[in-house]
TrEMBL record, chain A:
Residues 119-271, 408-521 form the Nitrite/sulphite reductase 4Fe-4S domain. The keyword Heme applies. Coiled coil: none annotated. The keyword 4Fe-4S applies. It comes from the Bacteria. It comes from Thalassovita litoralis. GO terms for molecular function: 4 iron, 4 sulfur cluster binding; heme binding; metal ion binding; oxidoreductase activity. It holds the Pfam family NIR_SIR. This is Sulfite reductase (NADPH) hemoprotein beta-component. Residues 52-110, 329-394 form the Nitrite/Sulfite reductase ferredoxin-like domain. Keywords: 4Fe-4S, Heme, Iron, Iron-sulfur, Metal-binding, Oxidoreductase.
From TrEMBL, chain B:
This is Sulfite reductase. Pfam families: DUF2849. Residues 67-100 are annotated as: Disordered. InterPro entries: DUF2849 (IPR021270).
Amino acid sequence: MYSYSEFDHAFLAARNAQFRAQVQRRIDGSLTEDEFRPLRLMNGLYLQLHAYMLRVAIPYGTLSAAQMRQLALIADKWDKGYGHFTTRQNIQYNWPKLPDVPDMLDALAQVNLHAIQTSGNTIRNVTADHFAGAAADEIADPRPVAELLRQWSTDHPEFQFLPRKFKIAVTGSDQDRAVIRAHDIGIQIVRQNGEIGYRIIVGGGLGRTPVIGKVINDFLPQADLLPYLEAVVTTYNLLGRRDNKYKARIKITVNENGLDTFRELTEARFAEIRPLFKGMDQDALAAIAAQFAPPAFLHKDTAAYDTTYQADPVFRAWADTNLHAHRADGYAIVTVSLKAHGQTPGDASSDQMRLLADLAEAYGHNELRISHEQNVILPHVHKSDLPALHAALKTDGLATANVGLISDIIACPGMDYCALATARSIPVAQQIAQRFDELKLEHDIGPLKIKISGCINACGHHHVGHIGILGLDRAGVENYQITLGGDGTQDAVIGERAGPGFAYDEIVDAIERIVRAYLDLRETPEETFLQAYRRLGAAPFKDALYPEASRKNAA
Amino acid sequence: MSRPFTPKVITANALLEGDVVYFTPQDNWTRHMSEAELIEDEAHAQVRLLDAERQQNQIVGAYLADVAKGPNGPEPTHFREDFRRTGPSNYFHGKQAEVA
């Protein structure tokens, strides 16, 4: 894991002292809210519906046990004993008080964490594949690149006032678990003729105008990464619209100017600045990469795992859904579900955080990850330790066997917390999870991603949910639109709107009708919802959703 | 014909705590919507909003919210204001827990 240099420590301390003074000046009246607002946003502090909210960056989703413990301490000391993990691998505290925030930031700095650039029109927390450094199908660990980009983008003087926020994601696998095609820039580490390089995707994004990113460069040599990205962001910074907030993201810039024009301008800028990069960036990357060396994997017998797998059906169900293939022999990647049926997706209590920290130390080479799907990953667990790990997870509601299933729902905070929301998300997610748990259909249904956003900004990624739900305010009443067939992977697709929306008390029944239609229509139990949807198209699912319209058409 | 004016209250978030507050006839801020000044005249609403916005050292983001006249003072007409008055629905936190 990356550990801070003297420079990092000094920078963060200076920045936190600066913000402490800014808070003090807001409180004593020297700064107006209009003056203070951009300053607090640069430091991750929002004002939400019921309180302030502090959004803390978890760079590329990676945490040590000590960092996780500190997050728990902050939750207990200055919040209400829990935190909310987000779709950008961040954690949000929902109840901080303004005078306490400088102390919270200092406490974060003690463990090399911060809230810088988690808001504002800057380059945001760089996200990465949550299985980085562990996945069996990985070409290279994406985190050194993500850390390099974090250092490059943090306080980058040219990129503090971009036309709009800017999100970058990195993956090192063909199988895209980081939704790189829905980012302003997506980076995929690829290998061509034995050489490692990068496929650069630009102009993806969700929100009110969902766009799948386009490949601007199919193979960028390693040494060109930073100057090329700088050229992309500079081009956007000059060309991007500042007259209309809704047309300011790079996806609009690329669409309005055309990918070819955008590429030409980028290449021209790249030619200008490439000579200025004389290798210091590559030295920095190499030094960072050395800090992400894989842990010393153990060679142990896996008999304990095999025995428990055969003997314990609860363990077996969990192992079948929550484990993924690891690159090292005898190891597994464990996804700990933060989606217990009926609970708030992505929330963890301080006790749960401490338990996860303990387990990471005991069984996980001291590493934790936060996924954009709002779960916690223990990326390196030896199979022989899985029975003990599972038993420990059970003690605090962390052993739910539902990863990738219908109750593993992404949900934004929605109108329960968010000032921008137009409807609630969390209770819809809770009710769907409970419904399918009661029906005992979840494992029979198989892989199915439901994603819920409480407004058009799409923090809940509903456009790329196999079933997406968008909560809106229709004439003062909550109303939920359904999209079908979305996909956030390497085959990214924006879901198709199914038809008129549903009321709050109708939405769970509507989802059940879609799912029951799928169960009737699938050719075999192995055919997933998404496969069935792609084979059949939307029509049979719409018929199930709107039976009355369907009957009328048939008549 | 102009449309009839919907009654309003002035609401904001407290500067230090961040929680929801309402402007009273005495130029104070209360945690209870029922104690807020019910404003039934459009011109008066604009004047009172200016009064409220002058208290920058106490509040953030004052605005006029639609309400209805209830037996115990103003009542929200929109679900957003109802949530702001109550707190989140997933936990018993916020106003519902703190303002008895």
